[in-house]
Every structure is written in C-alpha cells, then in structure tokens.
Amino acid sequence: MIRIAVKKRLFGVDGEMELAVDFTVSEGEFITLFGKSGAGKTTMLRMLCGLEAPDEGVITVGNDIWFDSAKRINLPPQRRQAGFVFQNYALFPNMTVRRNLTFALDKSHDPATVGTLLKTVGLEALAERYPDTLSGGQKQRVALIRALVRRPKILLLDEPLSALDLQMRLKLQDELLRMHRSFGLTTLLVSHDLSEIFKLSDRVVMLEHGGIVRSGTPSELFVSNELGGKFKLTGEVLRIDKDGVLYILTLLIGNSVVRVVATDDEVAEIGIGDSITVASKAFNPIIEKL
Amino acid sequence: MNRLKGTITSVESSGGISLIELDVNGNTFSALMIETPQSNPLLRTGEAVLLLFKETEVSIAKAFSGGISCRNRLRSTVSAIETSEILTKLTLDFRGTKVISIITTRSTEALGLAVGDEVEGIVKSNEISLKKAPE
Question: What is the ipTM metric for this complex?
Fold first, then answer.
C-alpha cells in the first residue's frame, strides 16, 4: 500500500495555495488524478518521484519510507522505485533508442532487460534509431518502456498521451493497461480525457485547489444516478444541426462518430466540445454478429 | 427528453428483470428494467423518481378503442403543433404537465390532429428510464 499524506505551499497562477492531501493507494491499483490546471496534480506526481519535496508529511510505499519530514528522510529520485512519463517525450536526441534505455538502467540491473522490454512492446526494429526519426507515438512508447527498465513499483504518468492523435492514443491506452497488469504496477495518471479515464482507471481522485474533493470509480464520479439506463457511453459533441423540429447531434464516442437525435431543451444545455453521456435502455440495441 | 415526477408503487422481479409500477399524479405508469432491487436498492416502493422517455417514443392515438399492449397511456390535450417536412412536434398537456411527442407529419395529417384535440400519448414500458428524483 502507498500512503501519501503531505502538505506543500504552492505559488500558482491564482496566487498562493496549500496542497494538502492524505490518501492511500492499494498495490496494483490504477488511479487517475483529475482536476483543473493548477489544482496540484503534477506537483503530487513530482513529490512522489522525488523531484519536489513536500513541506511536511510522509510518503510510504509498502514498508519503505520515501519521505518523512519528521524523520528527515527524503530519498533521491534514483532510490525511489518509480517510473515517470511526461507529455513531452524527454528522450536524449543524441542517443539511439537502445542507449536511451540502457542509460536509464542502474549498474545493479541486468542490461538484457532492455532487449527483453523492446521485444515485449515490439520495438526491436527501432532499437538503433535516433529519437528524431521516430513518430510521436513511437517516441512515447520508448519513453514508456524507459520508465519501466528499472522495474519500478509505481508508474507516474502526466498526460502522457495528450499530444497524440486519437488512433495512437487508443492504441497506447491498450498498451498502458497491458503493462500495468503484466508488470504488476501501481499507476497514477493525470488525465483530462474522460474516455481514457473510463477505460483505464480503477479509481479517480478529484483535486480542487490543492485538496481532494471526491474519489470513486469513474462511473460513481461522472455518471448521473440513472436507473436501468444500462447503455451508457461518454462522448464529445462535434456538431449540432437543426433539422426540422429536431436537432441532430454528431458525437465522437471512442473512435467512432455517431449521430443521435435531440430536442431543443436538450440542446439548450450543451455546446460543441462538451463532454456528454448518451444513455439508452438495454432493450433498444439491435445486435448482429460481425 | 420527457420528464415526469412519480413514485414507485410496486416492484415485481423475476430473474434479472423487474416490472415497476409508478404513480404519476394519480395515473398508473409501468417501466421495465434490467435491474432488480438487489442490483439497485433505489428500486423500492415509495421511492420518488423521474420517469424519462424520448419524444420520438411517444405514439399518438385519437378516438382510440379496442385493446393495446402498451401500458402507459397519457390522456392529454394537444396544446401546440409544430410541423416540418417529415416530422411534427406535438406538445401535449398531460394533466398540467408538458409532454412532447414527435411523430411523422404524414401521421399527423392522417389523424387530422389540431390544437385542442383530446388524444392519448402511448409509451411502451421498456422505453421508460427511471432516475432518482433530485432532492
């Protein structure tokens, strides 16, 4: 179990603010930190991996103390078993993919790990390439396995997929989930993408002004308590067209574009770009084998 | 989305399916759910809920006689008609509550519907969703 009970004064765009959180994460959980910019999400990840120190508090992982202000313990990043992936890839441009990965290894680790990892994610063919010759998705997959070469217990992801196109994002979401499971990781993700949150997270922790305001499964936090509307999807509004007495909403749900019918009172509350849930009774869907 | 306030008066379950009877201002409604009181504790007698159903699921009957399998019949007065080429939006006054029905303009003409007509809005039980009423 991981316990994060820390306080830190932050100086953000909205002035001074106190980040004060106390929560635990079970081993193997996939947690998403959700909240507006400046709520303290990235700072939390940076404190976990040791890039920033809390003003006071404790961070424990199992029986290990990573940070304890009272005992003056503050493990440096390289002694914390945590892997970190940012939105920008942060690969060394003057090193090949293989060198980027071996560079991240401790002397105590087996160099063969790099080969095995490259093979697991099917990137062997790119091992001798330089980052500049890779696509955004490939770079981010390299950054991801670089975070894993030191066999971390915790994987910290700060909007790692937000710069990628939808197709690549969906593919890497699957890969993230597979790695999370096969490496027995405990993962903390910062994300604003609702479909990503629903797909990946066991639990969502909602932050506001440096404090935790709510926590629960994605459904508990984002879906209204409708009864029996078994068929629930989250999507983004792409277009709203008036057609006679009705409106046609064009929605992006997952990676498909679908059109649904709405009335003026429903349209009055929504705009293009809004996230919405679409629910239908379990009796309606027509089912056909592909 | 049409919304009516109601109260659950009975829940009958078998397997994973429940038939819920509701009272809406003295009218009996029924809704079919793939939920049971075990899977959803809100399905119990006395619970205040909102009945939700799509405008396009409200059929219209005028001077109707004979039997019909649909369990939800809303005796209403047509208070407004808005016509477009293919579809027509009927605003019904269902005992003081507004209910919208969207049917084809062809049907509207075939029934000779006009403002002030007495009609029945008909909704199948499986088209009604329930939601916990706001506090």
Answer: 0.81
